[in-house]
Amino acid sequence: MQFWYMETRPNISSQSIREARERIDHMVHRTPVLHSSAINELAGCDLFFKCENFQKVGAFKARGAANAVLKLSKKDRENGVATHSSGNHAAALARAAQVAKIPAYIVMPSNAPEVKKQAVKGYGGIVIECEPNLQAREQGLKDVVKEFGAIFIPPYDHLDVIEGQATCALEIFDAGYSLDTLLTPVGGGGLLAGTALAASFYSPNTKVIGAEPEGADDARRSFVAGYRIPMEKPNTIADGLLTSLGEINFNIISNHVQDILTVSDAQIISAMRLIYERMKIVIEPSCAVPLAVVLKNKSLFEGQKVGIILSGGNVDLSKLPFKTRTFNSVSRNHSSGSYFVGL
Amino acid sequence: MQFWYMETRPNISSQSIREARERIDHMVHRTPVLHSSAINELAGCDLFFKCENFQKVGAFKARGAANAVLKLSKKDRENGVATHSSGNHAAALARAAQVAKIPAYIVMPSNAPEVKKQAVKGYGGIVIECEPNLQAREQGLKDVVKEFGAIFIPPYDHLDVIEGQATCALEIFDAGYSLDTLLTPVGGGGLLAGTALAASFYSPNTKVIGAEPEGADDARRSFVAGYRIPMEKPNTIADGLLTSLGEINFNIISNHVQDILTVSDAQIISAMRLIYERMKIVIEPSCAVPLAVVLKNKSLFEGQKVGIILSGGNVDLSKLPFKTRTFNSVSRNHSSGSYFVGL
Predict the structure, then answer these.
(1) B124 in the Ramachandran plot: left (φ > 0), alpha (ψ -120 to 50) or beta?
(2) In 3D, which of B184, B177, B179, B312 has the Cα closest to residue B252?
(3) b or e along B332-342 (b: 16 or more beta carbons within 10 Å of the residue's beta carbon)?
(4) Which residues in chain B have Cβ-Cβ distances shorter than 8 Å to A114?
(5) Tell me, which GO biological process terms does this entry list (chains A, B) (predicted)?
(6) DSSP calls for A17-78
(7) Lesser CB count within 10 Å: N end or C end of chain A?
(8) Nearest to B32 among A123, A318, A340 (CB)
């Protein structure tokens, strides 16, 4: 057992997550926890939403990237960092590098939207274009690492990144919530793995559950099978969750997560709308997956104290999936108010 | 002067606003104040956003309606309250009456959207339909008052309503912000008048400025002329600000407000987008008017501490005015994070 423990939590300890929180303190916000009595009523449980949509760069990814950059030795970091990504991790790494005053090389496919390249450049990142396929991206990354001596910081399959993401749940537990269950979305598994480790250290009675779109359910299938099954053709509105589960992530999740539950895109959109209308906050579709899971499985959570990590708020406002004004949605639209229960 | 003072602040005093805050405490949230370093950078000043979009019923109107209902004597209130409105005041009054366990009669034009009627009914309000013109609405209200003995609570031209709205600014000053300027949107003038009174009592060095759409600029024109000029054909995206300035409101505003500044609908939409993208919160267009005023008149506010009351968050999500994803807007979209500075 001790061996297994060592293997699944190497280098990450109760103490090291606390140290990570200290380390990244000047780079991230201690985000608020939001409460909505109207949504509680609908869900039949007491929900606590940790608002990482208010985080720097608009997503929890700021934590892991900051931790990974700051843990590099002075010598290691002097040639900069690199990754291949076009999502929140790219922006988060660029910003972490900017604060640390080192270069960040971000390999992006040549057909990536100009706006995403600009987001990275806005944080001082250096965009390296490559052919739009995985092989070219991986080769592009290798080339950058070789040419500049930059250190590769992957988006989730990395202990320092996972340790950084774990600081989010640490803040929840430090604020004194006695949660029965804590849910996060799962894509690559950085947030879920970090959250599960944090719960195992600080609140061992809290169950941790992953929430996943049906159209990108490799984590659920891997969790059930006991080995990693990569996602072939993911298809979901939750564009932050298209990636396949990482290896380190899978090992931690297998050992410390209670279950992984899935929901349809229609359920995700409905939960997303509820959060916009009742809580009056902007989130990206991936964020709505855990609430959709709770609403789909009410009996599982009945009467419980349930935490949900809202992972980010970077959404294309011109493409929100709210097509029609429905009878229900507008009577909902008069929020009964949400309030912040912790900072 | 003393006479003038009495006329413009009758019954409303430093003490009475505090008492109002106590009175409505079980009915409203103490809303948070939000801060965004990214928007500060763009605006060239230090902005503090008081988030009434997180208020009960999704708008500051909850305060005035609650105060007016609770100030009624037990005898006066037993036959219920009435108003003619289809906006946030209707929902706020219905809810205040529901909490006070008395009936609320809301006169609404027969062609009002079913969804708005449902919002009122959702709070237990009794919807009374009338022909869709002002005369019919006023007659409908008279009939209700006569038939049921209900007390008319107007949406803004009423001292108890103004006193209730003043509790919002009281919370800001009590939280210890030393604001140079405080801005609110102005429609009927309930929020602006209440805010101006609160500032005159609790923070006399804070200038209070009204923010108004060009397409509904009767408050600006009345303020300049020195007498009330009703709005004939208002036309603006800020649908909460279509009403003409009330009489009591005009008197208070004339005496305690520094200036009223206007902005175009394009400027309102641009400020609204900025708040969604950078602060990750949902607001209605009327809320964005004060930020638009600040961005249009940067030199006026340079280096100042500026408060803005975000008045509400009840917006039709299927009709958000964000048509295209622009280069700028998306690089903005990666928020540098917002944080809550007070609760």
Answers:
(1) left
(2) B184
(3) bbbbbbbbbeb
(4) 327
(5) D-serine biosynthetic process
(6) HHHHHHHTTTTS----EEEEHHHHHHHTSEEEEEEGGGSGGGBTHHHHHHHHHHHS-HHHHT
(7) N
(8) A340
Which of B55, B315, B333 to probe by mutation at the A interface, max A CB count within 10 Å? B333
Query: CB of A340 within 8 Å of any CB in chain B?
Result: yes
Chain A residues whose CB is inside 8 A of the B273 CB are 317
Containing H/E element for B63?
helix B61-71
Name the one residue in this structure whose structure tokens are 């965004």: B36
Reference B49, options B307, B341, B305, B343; nearest CA is B307
**Least confident among B86-90, B288-292, B336-340:** B336-340
| Rounded Cα distance, B64 and B24, in Å | 9
* pLDDT tens string B18-38: 999 999 999 999 999 999 999
| Strands lying side by side in the sheet with A104-109 | A126-130, A104-109, A81-84, A151-152
What pLDDT score does B258 carry? Answer: 98
Q: Tell me, what's the ipTM?
A: 0.88
Residue A274's identity, in one-letter code, is: L
d(CA B235, CA B218): 12
The total number of structural domains that make up chain B: 2
For residue B1, is pLDDT > 60?
no
Mean pLDDT per 10-residue section of chain A, whose length is 343 residues = 44 96 97 93 97 95 98 94 89 96 94 81 94 88 95 96 98 95 97 98 98 97 96 91 94 97 98 96 96 98 98 90 57 48 40
Establish if B333 touches chain A: CB-CB under 8 angstroms: yes
- B270 and B203 in a single domain? The answer is yes
Query: Over the range B25-46, which residues count as b (16 or more CB within 10 Å of their CB) and which as e?
Result: eebbbbbbbbbbebbeebbebb
The model's pLDDT over B111-128, given as tens digits with 9 standing for 90+, comes to 887 777 888 999 999 999
CATH of residue B94: 3.40.50.1100
| pLDDT score, position A331 | 38
Q: Give the sheet arrangement for strand A207-213, strand by strand.
A: A259-263, A207-213, A181-185, A305-310, A46-51, A33-36, A338-342
- How far is it, in rounded angstroms, from Cα B267 to Cα B273? 10
Q: Which range marks the domain in which residue A336 is found?
A: 2-59+162-342
List of residues 6+ apart from A15 with CB closer than 8 A: none
pLDDT class for B328, splitting at 50, 70, 90? very low
| Interface touch A115/B53, C-beta < 8 Å | no
**In-domain check, residue A157:** no
For chain B, say whether A327 makes contact (Cβ under 8 Å): yes
Q: In which band, very low, low, confident or very high, does the pLDDT at B87 lie, cut at 50, 70 and 90?
A: confident
B53 touches chain A (CB under 8 A): yes
Nearest residue of chain A to residue B58 (CA atoms): A335
Q: What is the pLDDT of residue B179?
A: 98
What pLDDT shows up at residue B338? 57
User: What angle is formed at CA B313 by the lines to CA B312 and CA B319, rounded to 5 degrees?
Assistant: 130
Domain boundary among B132, B152, B172: B152
